[in-house]
Design a protein that fits this description.
about 5% strand; about 60% helix
Length: about 140
């Protein structure tokens, strides 16, 4: 009887142990699995992390676009962080702008009040019209 071999799917990463190559079909992708160039006994003696690392290395060497597909989601997440940061900055700038506008209006009112007060002091006949100037 033939020895077990390790087969893996270069598309989704599924792997399995098969005696015959024709039985090595990915249940997820329904495509033929590739044979791993590592004997079955060596593969099963690896830790799960080492198995995953080996399979990831094989998948990436088989199809470099996989890393682009994986990184696309990460890049999109990064864009979301940037957008959130920019929204926060815009909000802070709007608050600062509002505060500066209030300060400017206060300064404008104060200047007009002082001007009206000075004008009334110089011309006492205008003191009766103070209700018109207070607008």
């Amino acid at each position: 009887m033939r020895e077990l071999a390790v087969y893996y799917c270069p598309k989704c990463g599924y792997y399995g142990y098969f005696h015959l190559e024709q039985n090595a079909i990915c249940p997820n992708c329904l495509k033929k699995l590739d044979c791993l160039d590592l004997p079955y006994q060596d593969f099963v003696s690896l830790s799960l992390e080492a198995r995953d690392a080996l399979l990831i290395q094989k998948i990436l060497s088989h199809d470099p676009s996989v890393s682009n597909r994986i990184l696309t989601a990460d890049r999109a997440h990064s864009y979301r962080k940037t957008i959130a940061s920019l929204h926060s900055q815009v909000y802070d700038l709007k608050l600062e702008n509002k505060q500066l506008l209030e300060t400017l209006n206060w300064m404008h009112e104060t200047i007009w009040e002082l001007l009206n007060k000075k004008t009334r002091e110089e011309d006492p006949s205008l003191q009766g019209d103070s209700s018109k100037d207070s607008d």
